Amino acid sequence: MSQTKLFEPFKLGPITLPNRLAMAPLTRNRAIPPGMVPSPLAVDYYGQRASAGLLITEASQVSQQGQGYQDTPGIYSKEQIAGWRKVTDRVHEKGGHIYIQIWHVGRISHDSLQPGGGKPVGPSAIRAKGKTFVNGTFTDISEPRALELSEIPGIIEDFKRGTANALEAGFDGVEIHGANGYLLDQFAKDGANKRTDAYGGSIENRAKLMLEVSKVVAAVAGADRTGIRISPVTPANDVSDSNPQPLFDYIVEGLNALKLTYIHVIEGATGGPRDIAPFDYASLRKRFKQAYVANNGYDFDLATKVLAENAADLIAFGKPFISNPDLVERLKKGAPLNAFDKATFYGGGAKGYTDYPTLGAAQAAE
Known about the structure:
The protein is an alpha/beta fold. It is built from eleven helices and 14 strands. It has an eight-stranded parallel beta barrel. It has a two-stranded antiparallel ribbon with strand order 1-2. Strands 6-9 form a two-stranded parallel ribbon. The longest helix has 19 residues. The model has no long low-confidence stretch (mean pLDDT 97).
């Protein structure tokens, strides 16, 4: 084990992480309706996983309009702040560090989730092919409408308010969701953005919203407590760009100028092949002076290799953290991992959420 940097401490802004494992944001659809407040089970869930160097919460919408799936938590009401405060308190009691991921889903939503049953919003009135999860089932995504230019400052304000709320809830920092075909990614990529105003056309215009949101979040949280997640080539949620390399080189240069503490990069197709499209991630690494968090399909061996090559600073693990609350210990000991139960990923109660055994519990039961 001495050959891996995975278990070495890492200084992320003002925080010293005990290891280089991050728990990736994982949507679990267990917030309590109608207020979309994190449940008491979420307190246990994150607390169980506090040995990760950095926990990043499931994506949490900055407004009701920003919600795209049933029972995802928000960060725009007093009740949500109070619910999240219980989570951060538990994680901190256990010596952990936790960022919240804040999002607006844009067009990836359903009329039934929108204020007044209105249409979801996006850069352009282009319906995404795909499904969302509402009323306990997967349903076609609704037809969106294009955001008016006059509405965009309100979206930026929602992210700003969500950040202030996150600090009030006790989070160590904030990760902006700029990935996976959600609002900021929709604006950036020309497959979803056909605007002809200041937010459409050129790379500079399409990148504008992501960079403006990053600037206000960093102004509230501090740049050294602000990260962002990007996914240059993922086809998730029917998003695409005709030339992603110059687009994301430009975006990352802008993020570097803002001195954000990390970029969290999904390499390849989210939850799918890493080599889905050619892309030079080293180009982003070179342009960004702070931490690079690598994500997608990592196991111990790949994480060890990438850290040894200095191609990343932190490695985000997703599904392995769902079924292994003590993933850090298991990887350290080379112990077998619990298999995950895909049927319990989205929605439900404790089953498949807080009931996966730790190594010690599993051994004691034998």
